[in-house]
Every structure is written in C-alpha cells, then in structure tokens.
Amino acid sequence: MKGLAAALLVVAILFVANGLFTGSLVSGVSISPYILQVVCLAGINIILAVSLNLINGFTGQFSIGHAGFMAIGAYSSAFLTVTYGERIQSALEFLPVFARDGALLLAGLAVGAMLAAIAGFFVGVPSLRLRGDYLAIVTLGFGEIIRVWILNIDAVGGARGYSGIPKLANFFWIYLFAAISILVVFRVVRSSFGRTLIAIREDEIAAEAMGVDTTRSKVISFVISSAMAGVGGGLFGHYLMYLHTNSFTFIKSIEIIIMIVIGGLGSITGSVLGAMLYIGLTEGLREFAQYRMVLFSLLLIVIMIVRPQGILGHREFLTFLRRRRRLDSPASPMIR
Amino acid sequence: MALLELSDVTMRFGGLVAVNELTLALESGQLYGLIGPNGAGKTTVFNVVTGVYTPTAGSIRFDGDEIAGERSGRITRRGIARTFQNIRLFGDMTVLQNVEVAFHCRQAAGVGDAVFRSRRHWSEEARVDRESRELLKIFHLDGLAQERARNLPYGSQRRLEIARAMATSPRVLLLDEPAAGMNRQEAQQVMDLIRWVRDHFGMAVLLVEHNMKVVMGVCEIVHVLDYGSTIAIGKPAEIQSNPKVIEAYLGGA
User: Fold this and answer.
1) Whose CA, among A101, A327, B154, B210, lies 20 to 30 Å from B10?
2) Residues in chain B closer than 8 A to A224 (CB atoms)
3) How much is the pTM?
4) Touching check for B121 and chain A: CB below 8 Å?
C-alpha cells in the first residue's frame, strides 16, 4: 500500500512537472525548449548509466557495448510505432489522445526492451566467459557489429537515418522510466541475487566456491542491463523523432562509462549524478566552442586524480552524507 | 561406502605430476588431516576435489556420484565447501554480507522476487539474516558484522572464511591451512573451533595444515603426501613415529 502510494505520488509529480515545463498546464508558465531538451536527454542518460552500472559497477564486468543495445531498442521500438502505429492508434480510438500515445509508446518500449534483452543474452553467454580487457574488447566488437548491421537495414532508413518517428516520449515518460530503472537496479542489487553480483566483482573464484553459479548471475545481470538500455534507446528515438546509427557508435558507450566512472562505479545515485553532470558539463561548456572538449577532458583528468573511485565511491548518496558527518565529529560514539 | 572417495586420482601439469594416483576415503563426521612438505600437492588435491581443476585421471565420488570435472559452484551446491590458503574474502562487502552470499545457493528466491519484493523475498531475507548472524556468533564475529571484510584483523579473516564456507551447509568441509600465520593461542582457538563445528554440525572435515600441533591435536586420521604420492596413512601417533614421514620432512640421514 505504501509502495503504491509512493508510485502514484511520483507519477503525479512527474505529470505536473511535465505540464509546467511544456506550458500546457498553466498558460505562460514554461521553461525554454532548449533547457527542457537538455533535461530530457539527461533523463535518458540516467537510464543508460544506471543500467550499465549494474554490469560494470556492481558485477564488475567491464562492458563497452551498451550503445549497441540502446540502438536495438531505439530502432525496433521506432519500427513498431512507425509501421504499426496508425493501426494500433485506430484500434484504440475509444481512448483519449494522451492515453493512446502512451499505450503506443509502451508497446514500442516493450518490444525494444525485449529485443535488446535477447541480444544481450546472445552476446552475454559467449563473452561473459572472458574477463577484464578481453570482455571489453568483445563487447566493443559486438556493439559495433550491431550498429553496422542496422546501418545496412534499408527498412529503417539505412545510412539516410530513420525519420518520421512519432513524438511519443516527453519529460513525463523519460523520467518515469528513469525512476523505474533506478528502482529496479536498486532492488536487484539489494537482494540475495545482488549480493552474488557484488561477490563476483570482489572475487569470482571465491564466489564460485561459495556455490554461486557465476555464469548465470553474470548473464542475468547483463540481460537486465541490456533491456534497460533498450528502453533508453526507445525513449531516445521517440523523443528526437529521428535516428541515425552515428548516435550509437562506441563513443556513446564510452560516454556512458565516463558517467558511471565519474559518479562512482557501484553507486546508483552516483550514476544519476554522473549522467546529470556529464550532460550539464557538455552543454554548459558549449560557449567555449573549440576548447570544449579540451576543458572537458581536463576536468575528467582532475576528477580521476582527486577522486579515482568516483564522486560517491561505492556508496549511495545518503550513506555518503552520513559518513561525512560522522567523520566530521570525532566525539561521535560510533568511532572507537 | 565413504562420503567422499578419491580413487587413483592423478593431476598432471605438463610434465609435472602434482598428484599421483591418490586414493583417499573420508567418512562422514571424520576429521581427516592431509599433510606433507611444501609442494607435496595438498592444495592441488583441494582444487581437484572442488572442481577448480579436472583431474587427469581417476575418479572422485561424493555420496556415490561422480563429481570429477564438475564446476565448482555445482560441487559446492552438492555439499562440499572450502576455504582458501590465501584468504579470498569479498573485501568490500561487510562481514555479514560475506556470509549471506554463501546462503544464496540454498535459496529459492530469484531475481523476479527481488524486483517485485515478493513475500518470498522478504521471508528468505529475514531467514538468511537470522542464520548468518547465528553463524557469526558461533565464530565470535557478531560484533564485527557491519565491518568491511578487508578491514578485519588476520585471525578474524581466517575465521570468517570458515564461517562463510559453513553457510553453504556442507557435508564435507575442506580447510586449507586454517591456522596459517597464527600464534599458538590463536591456533588453539582454531582447533577448538574445528572440533566444535564438527561435533555440532556433524560434517566431515578434510584439513590441510602445516602446523603439526593443530594436525596432531585435531585429526583422527592423518594422510601424508610427498611429491604427490601417499607415503603413510594412520593415526596421529603412528604417523609421528613413521620413519618414511620423518625422512620426507627432515631428509634421509
């Protein structure tokens, strides 16, 4: 009951915020479309970062193929809404417009998540037998294979890009799914299964010796992570209304890795912070035009020297604050 | 029939024969010591039994089933747990979580239960938490439950390794030098603990140890290896006076 109330509250808040931001709730009250777009893209990146953190941060398996799964979700969900959108819409004629759009988006995202999960399974089973840099190289390769494969499918535009995607995603849907991904990863990690993931990160041989089926755990976490990347991709396509495979190169995967590394591997709130910081910085430094990437890289280097474990380290935001306070007051009885 | 039976197990690494036609029978509830000079192949025996290596030849039977070559996780779920000579705890996890991980293999709750926080998830979490804390109490680690495993003193880390192995509810416990690097008093505590655990939970213990006081004090049967081959099996008193054993340890006169 408490959970249901909290869920309804989140939905209500997001709905009102969406109305206020776009100016559809109170006339004259809105934020600039540019800011809104940045905020929405940050939301999509939160989904991607949080999901990648499950495999890279918590399970300790370094994957650089996340953009590939995002691409699968983006293209498959867009293909569904573009090809069958009108038919589904007319079948749901009895519903109001926003509910119809929402249902279509959810159908698209479900297909995207499912296909990305299936791809994650087939990529994960062979590659998760490898460790460290080998796994990184293999996932990088798979990510590129997926991208080039999509580039050669004419039905989704090929090299021209895929246009004409209906604008179904908005602030509300993006942040609703960001909230859901945070909740899902949080629950997965704080469970018996989640402990096996962290155990694999800490010492795979010992985890196996404690009866953990390490391959199974790794594949499950990889599949969950891929499915969520698929959702992120689906939202991306339905927000920008245009897709091109250039958005899903390994540079995108690296960007997501940067977000989770800045925020702290193995910290969900850290990933959220990292995603917001990354998007905020890339947009904020736009004025400096050609020096932007130089400044950005310098900043990353500084962060890595000062705090190599990421801003939050392995901890979540609240425990991070609590520990800070504890260390500040040496009289605390907690420290002996 | 013995609980764990190795017959003619051979493990070769290229030209090196680490274990040579080893035959060993461990009855349930037995305290069995495996000793030998450095490089005699003791840890290799552990690795072969727990599935880290597949033996080159021979058979390993646990409770009547052939287990040679199975994956370690599967063997642990069958009921053989081990500790490591070089401590392998999950350093960044708390002491409590280290033990909780080992309970996972006997649990029914899966990822779905975790995501939807089903009733099964909560009841199993509560049970695992309770049983883990009981286990920590037995091993005198209950005061350190929320400490990160890597911050523990050496002796406590060794005890935590045993506690963690116990959490998989094994019928055979393999201890790889549990008293390594301990002083006499700590070693004595480990001896008492091993005996207590055996009496209380009734599992068989296969012990590899260099500390002769511990081996002779705790084991009912001692098995001596040298260069991968068995040179003697017997009661501690017999082993101590066996000329072949003395030669292996001290060299021929």
Assistant:
1) B210
2) 111
3) 0.90
4) yes
